């Protein structure tokens, strides 16, 4: 006979051998005993928890020679045929490969035939969620009103993909994950029956790695025995299954709690050199951080942590170093960094940075502690009396030597100075206060003052800013400018520089008199301005002695131009 794996060899053959599903097995036994067996069942749950095994046991209990019976005999011909998979009354259909409407039509055609040896024709459809929508619709009528001799058992790991119309026509039984302790006990029985010698720590490691699946645990045990024989330790099992050694996890937590960065980095380097999966190590470390938090919150919560007794004692000792709030903060940081580690292009570097962040994480002070401190501070402030300000002597310093009195405090800006303006980062700047005489003149006010022109200095005139060089403003000849048309007349408002025959009077919007000249200077503010605004005609009148009313300014003898 060919070799059978442990999962097939030790498949349960009765309801009593099913592990961890007592509510379901008890309900089915009571239904058979009272004759209240439904025509359709839906078994849902994770992998390796006994869905298909319970379906076969139910088929044997219905078709047994001594039945229907709550416990099949497993000795009669019908039970043996169902166990061997050769019974014509129990049909197992793979929903993934027979998922079309043609297969459902074929099933509807054959369901009307009576059973051959037993009392019922049992149809076990595994992975029923893989059927198409049309196949489900074609199965509705048959599933709702099947023949009296037909029983349907649908099994799936994804019940949310099964249509509601199918689920409403079935009795649903949800299989749960098997506890780790139950899996470990089942492995101990299996090892004893096989004659192997494995310690409890090794079997506990296999049971934890199965994650609630008895079939996975049996497969791991088969793999371990094949690798190392009947005597294999926990370190070898961890290497075979790719699991991080529990001692390394405890050492990592110890380094984090005691803030030992070099030890933690050396541990990561050893794991990396040994070929361990750093992402898997991180997942195991998160689970151990959860166990550490449980040990800090409630040391009696031993059953909630799936660890060995020696590891639990070490976790309880580490949980006393920091308060529970800090342990909770550590677990939160680990959970937040798991997604970053999955996407990191360099897992080792990301893992080292994340664990070093845990080392430098400061503990959080509870809110109640802050309230107590604030209350204590308020009480001390209310009861305390202010101390007198000590007198300071500047005569001598500490060594007894003479010491100069300190400078008076600096007041800025000084009150006896001109106004200051604060410019932000640029500092203070003294404002410049301009007087009327310091204000800049307009272009047409750059000539002599009106007083000088009234005294007979009318010849020294300047050009306005609107007059272009070389252009005469009046249509007369080269003779003397008529009175009332000079710059003085313009400043006094007796005429307009651009229009002839304006009525005398001040210009609108203009003052009758320009600003006073600077002290000690009756002329323009600078020579350049005077030259820029000097009129060529006025210069000719000055040097040629042109006629006109008012005193004439003496000048050099006329020359021939």
What is this structure's SSE topology?
Blueprint: H1 6-9, H2 22-34, E1 40-44, H3 51-63, H4 77-84, E2 90-94, H5 101-110, E3 121-126, H6 133-144, E4 150-156, H7 164-167, E5 171-174, H8 180-194, H9 200-210, H10 214-228, H11 234-241, H12 246-257, H13 261-273, H14 278-297, H15 309-319, H16 324-343, H17 347-359, H18 367-383, E6 420-422, E7 428-430, H19 450-457, H20 487-492, H21 527-533, H22 536-544
Helix pairs in contact: 3-4, 5-6, 8-9, 9-10, 9-11, 10-11, 12-13, 12-14, 12-15, 13-17, 14-15, 14-16, 16-17
State the main characteristics.
single chain; 561 residues; mainly alpha; two-stranded antiparallel sheet; 22 helices; 6% strand
Structure write-up:
With 561 residues, this protein is mainly α. It has 22 helices and 7 strands. The strands form 2 sheets. The chain has a 5-stranded parallel beta sheet with strand order 2-3-4-1-5, covered by helices on one side.
Helix content: 40-55%
User: What is the alpha-carbon Rg in Å?
Assistant: 54 Å
What low-confidence regions span 5 or more consecutive residues with pLDDT below 50?
A: 394-398, 457-468, 471-477, 487-503, 509-514, 518-534, 546-555
β content, as a range?
Answer: 5-15%
Secondary-structure-derived class: mainly alpha
- Straight-line N-to-C gap: 144 Å
How many helices? The count is 22
Give the overall shape, derived from the CA principal axes.
elongated
| Sheet of most strands | 5 strands, parallel
The average pLDDT value, as a whole number, equals: 76
- Biggest sheet strand line-up: 2-3-4-1-5
Question: What pattern of helices and strands is seen along the backbone?
Answer: HHEHHEHEHEHEHHHHHHHHHHHEEHHHH
The count of strands amounts to: 7
């Amino acid at each position: 006979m060919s070799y059978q794996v442990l999962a097939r060899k030790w498949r349960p053959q009765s309801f009593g051998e099913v592990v961890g599903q007592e509510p379901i097995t008890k309900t089915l036994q009571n239904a058979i005993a009272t004759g209240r067996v439904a025509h359709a069942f839906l078994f849902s749950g994770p992998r390796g928890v006994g869905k298909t095994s319970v379906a076969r046991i139910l088929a044997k209990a219905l078709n047994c020679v001594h039945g229907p019976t709550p416990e099949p005999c497993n000795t009669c011909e019908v039970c043996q045929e169902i166990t061997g998979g050769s019974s014509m009354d129990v049909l197992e259909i793979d929903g993934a490969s027979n998922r079309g409407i043609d297969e459902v039509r074929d099933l509807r055609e054959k369901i009307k035939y009576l059973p051959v040896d037993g009392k019922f024709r049992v149809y076990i459809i595994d992975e029923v969620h893989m059927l198409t929508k049309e196949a489900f619709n074609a199965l509705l009528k048959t599933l709702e009103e099947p023949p009296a001799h037909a029983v349907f058992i649908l099994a799936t790991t994804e019940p949310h993909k099964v249509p509601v119309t199918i689920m409403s026509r079935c009795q649903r039984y949800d299989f749960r994950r098997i506890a780790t302790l139950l899996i470990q006990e089942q492995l101990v029985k299996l090892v004893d029956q096989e004659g192997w010698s494995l310690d409890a720590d090794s079997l506990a490691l296999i049971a934890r790695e199965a994650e609630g699946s008895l079939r996975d645990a049996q497969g791991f045990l088969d793999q371990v025995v094949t690798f190392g024989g009947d005597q294999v330790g926990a370190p070898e099992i961890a290497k075979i299954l790719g699991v991080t050694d529990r001692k390394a996890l405890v050492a990592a937590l110890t380094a984090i709690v005691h803030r030992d960065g070099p030890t933690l980095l050396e541990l990561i380097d050893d794991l990396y050199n040994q070929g361990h999966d750093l992402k898997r190590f991180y997942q195991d470390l998160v689970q151990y951080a959860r166990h550490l938090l449980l040990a800090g919150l409630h040391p009696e919560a031993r059953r909630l942590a799936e660890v060995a007794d020696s590891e639990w004692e070490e976790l309880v000792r580490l949980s006393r170093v920091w308060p529970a709030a800090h342990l909770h903060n550590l677990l939160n940081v680990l959970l937040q960094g798991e997604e970053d580690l999955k996407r990191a292009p360099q897992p080792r570097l990301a893992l080292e940075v994340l664990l070093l962040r845990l080392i430098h994480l400061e503990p959080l002070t509870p809110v109640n502690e802050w309230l107590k401190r604030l209350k204590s501070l308020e009480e001390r402030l209310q009861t305390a009396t202010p101390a007198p300000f000590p007198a300071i002597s500047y005569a001598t310093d500490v060594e007894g030597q003479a010491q100069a009195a300190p400078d008076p405090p600096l007041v800025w800006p000084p009150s006896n100075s001109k106004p200051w303006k604060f410019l932000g980062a640029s500092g203070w700047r003294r404002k410049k206060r301009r007087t009327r005489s310091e204000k800049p003149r307009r272009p047409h006010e750059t000539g002599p003052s009106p007083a000088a022109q009234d005294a007979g200095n009318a010849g020294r005139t300047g050009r306005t800013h609107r007059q272009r060089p070389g252009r005469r403003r009046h249509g007369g000849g080269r003779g003397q400018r008529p009175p009332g048309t000079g710059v003085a007349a313009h400043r006094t408002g007796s005429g307009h520089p651009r229009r002839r025959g304006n009525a005398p009077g001040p210009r609108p919007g203009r003052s009758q008199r320009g600003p006073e000249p600077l002290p000690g200077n009756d002329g323009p503010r600078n020579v350049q301005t005077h030259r820029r605004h000097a009129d060529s005609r006025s210069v000719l009148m000055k040097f040629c002695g042109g006629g006109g009313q008012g005193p004439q300014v003496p000048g050099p003898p006329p020359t021939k131009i």
